[in-house]
């Protein structure tokens, strides 16, 4: 037996539709790629990660589909945690799908707005996850809700810094490969690293899969930056290493937060 309302069913359908839409839009994205950087939307910058870093999109899309299938189970229709994170995640899937269409078509301003909105939606879902609590979470909640959200949010946190720097380069505000581009890119990367450290610290009030997945994915992005830029820019490479130290300290040096309490059922 299951409980839940028509709104719960609508949320389940929206998550499945959104996850499928962003996966299909991802195919469009790949088929329409030029030789230019991915999240940089065509403007080469001194914080662009190496190409291999973007393979993280495969697990992001697959984990999103796995989450969508899990939350669509009839027994999960009235689940309090999924009620809490479901709508912002469904919206995030659709927004990312739109970004995957706008970006390769060169709609730079629209793409930047979309990726910023995507970041905000994932932040809402992540902090609802932390705040709502999981009590004694089952394995499925840890691996099919917390981990997919952490991976997704971690990558999009880093992607926003690259995207903003690239937009400034493409708009002629800075020289993406010059001093101005390095300064702006380094500043945005540092802000992203500081934000990531705060997110990891706050996430320690929740299950480990959430904040560990977030931190590991952000570190993966930084590794991509160092691998791609260590010969081109000592400055942005140093900033990336500093950010990695901040996030690493938040992951392993900070104290663990409080434990989750099981959320009450929501109507």
UniProtKB/TrEMBL annotation:
<feature type="transmembrane region" description="Helical">
    <location>
        <begin position="12"/>
        <end position="31"/>
    </location>
</feature>
<feature type="transmembrane region" description="Helical">
    <location>
        <begin position="233"/>
        <end position="252"/>
    </location>
</feature>
<protein>
    <recommendedName>
        <fullName>Tryptophan-rich sensory protein</fullName>
    </recommendedName>
</protein>
<keyword id="KW-0472">Membrane</keyword>
<feature type="transmembrane region" description="Helical">
    <location>
        <begin position="210"/>
        <end position="227"/>
    </location>
</feature>
<feature type="transmembrane region" description="Helical">
    <location>
        <begin position="51"/>
        <end position="73"/>
    </location>
</feature>
<feature type="transmembrane region" description="Helical">
    <location>
        <begin position="182"/>
        <end position="203"/>
    </location>
</feature>
<keyword id="KW-0812">Transmembrane</keyword>
<feature type="transmembrane region" description="Helical">
    <location>
        <begin position="80"/>
        <end position="99"/>
    </location>
</feature>
<keyword id="KW-1133">Transmembrane helix</keyword>
<feature type="transmembrane region" description="Helical">
    <location>
        <begin position="105"/>
        <end position="130"/>
    </location>
</feature>
<feature type="transmembrane region" description="Helical">
    <location>
        <begin position="142"/>
        <end position="162"/>
    </location>
</feature>
């Amino acid at each position: 037996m299951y409980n839940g309302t028509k709104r719960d069913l609508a949320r389940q359908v929206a998550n499945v539709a959104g996850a499928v839409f962003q996966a299909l839009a991802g195919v469009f994205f790949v088929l329409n790629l030029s030789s230019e950087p991915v999240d940089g939307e065509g403007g080469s910058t001194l914080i662009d990660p190496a190409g291999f870093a973007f393979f993280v999109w495969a697990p992001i899309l697959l984990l999103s589909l796995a989450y969508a299938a899990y939350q669509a189970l009839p027994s999960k229709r009235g689940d309090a945690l999924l009620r809490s994170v479901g709508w912002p995640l469904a919206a995030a899937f659709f927004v990312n799908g739109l970004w995957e269409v706008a970006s390769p078509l060169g709609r730079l301003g629209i793409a930047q707005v979309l990726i910023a909105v995507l970041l905000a939606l994932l932040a809402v879902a992540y902090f609802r996850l932390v705040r709502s609590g999981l009590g004694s979470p089952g394995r499925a909640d840890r691996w099919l809700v917390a981990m997919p959200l952490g991976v997704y949010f971690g990558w999009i946190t880093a992607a926003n810094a690259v995207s903003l720097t690239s937009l400034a380069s493409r708009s002629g505000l800075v020289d993406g490969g010059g001093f101005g581009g390095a300064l702006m890119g380094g500043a945005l990367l540092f802000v992203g690293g500081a934000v990531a450290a705060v997110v990891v610290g706050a996430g320690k009030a929740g299950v480990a899969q959430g904040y560990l997945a977030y931190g590991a994915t952000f570190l993966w992005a930084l590794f991509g930056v160092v691998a791609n830029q260590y010969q081109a820019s000592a400055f942005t490479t140093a900033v990336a290493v500093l950010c990695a130290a901040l996030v690493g300290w938040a992951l392993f040096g900070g104290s663990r937060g409080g434990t989750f309490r099981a959320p009450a059922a929501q109507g």
